[in-house]
Amino acid sequence: MALVAIGVTLPSAALLCMDACQEYDASLLHYSDAATSDVVDAASEAFDAPMDTDGGQQGDASDASDASDASDASDALDAPAEADGPPPCSTTQADCDGVTSNGCETNLLSASEHCGTCGHNCLGGDCLGGRCQPYELATGQSEPLLIALDLNHVYWTNQGGAGAVMRTPKQGAAAEQIAVSDHPPGGIAVDLSAVYWSEFGSPGTVWRLDKADIGQNVDPTALATGQATSVALVEEGDDVYWTTPGTVRTTPKAGGPVTTLAHGQGSPFGMVVEFGQVYWTNATGGQIMHYDHFDPDAGPVEMVSGQDFPIGLASDLGNLYWANYEGDSDGGTPKLLTIAKLNMTQPITLVDGQQGPAGVVVSGNDIFWTNNVGGSVMRMPKVGGTPQIIADNQWTPSGIAADATTVYWVNRDDGRVMAVAR
Question: pTM of this prediction?
Answer without folding.
Answer: 0.80
